[in-house]
């Protein structure tokens, strides 16, 4: 009987640790919260002047980019003096309300990770190199 309890205890500990590791490995930046599926367009604006550049409405491109951003590795920029990005990418819902915004660099930056998208909210560069179809 004692051997059976030891077996059950080891089994419980194993499954608990396995579950914890599995959940930790499925990390998400949760940048879009519950609205990740509600992004209808990406409005691109000049970072310095706020001048409108273009709107991206290709749903497959948007869905793919949102997924990349949600699962991207990040590199902290909290204590860095960064140059301003060239553009601001505003992720909008169907009512044109801003869900999330990122600074977008035309050239990839290498700051612990290589990427083009900067989150002021996270104070981090996201390891996503997907180019926005701007020009």
From TrEMBL:
Upper taxonomic classification of the species? Answer: Bacteria, Bacillati, Bacillota, Bacilli, Lactobacillales
Q: What organism does this protein naturally occur in?
A: Alkalibacterium pelagium
Provide the protein name: Uncharacterized protein
Keywords recorded for this protein, A-Z? Signal
Signal peptide residues are 1-24
């Amino acid at each position: 009987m004692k051997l059976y309890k030891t077996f059950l205890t080891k089994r419980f500990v194993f499954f608990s640790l396995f579950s914890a590791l599995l959940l930790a490995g499925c990390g998400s930046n949760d940048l879009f919260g519950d609205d990740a599926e509600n992004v209808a367009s990406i409005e691109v604006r000049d970072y310095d002047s706020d001048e409108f550049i273009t709107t991206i409405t290709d749903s497959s491109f948007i869905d793919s980019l949102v997924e990349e951003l949600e699962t991207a590795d990040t590199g902290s920029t909290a204590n860095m003096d960064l140059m301003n990005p060239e553009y601001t990418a505003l992720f909008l819902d169907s009512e044109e309300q801003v869900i999330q915004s990122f600074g977008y660099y035309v050239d990839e930056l290498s700051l612990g990770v290589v990427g083009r998208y900067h989150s002021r909210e996270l104070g981090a560069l996201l390891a996503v190199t997907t180019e926005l179809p701007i020009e």
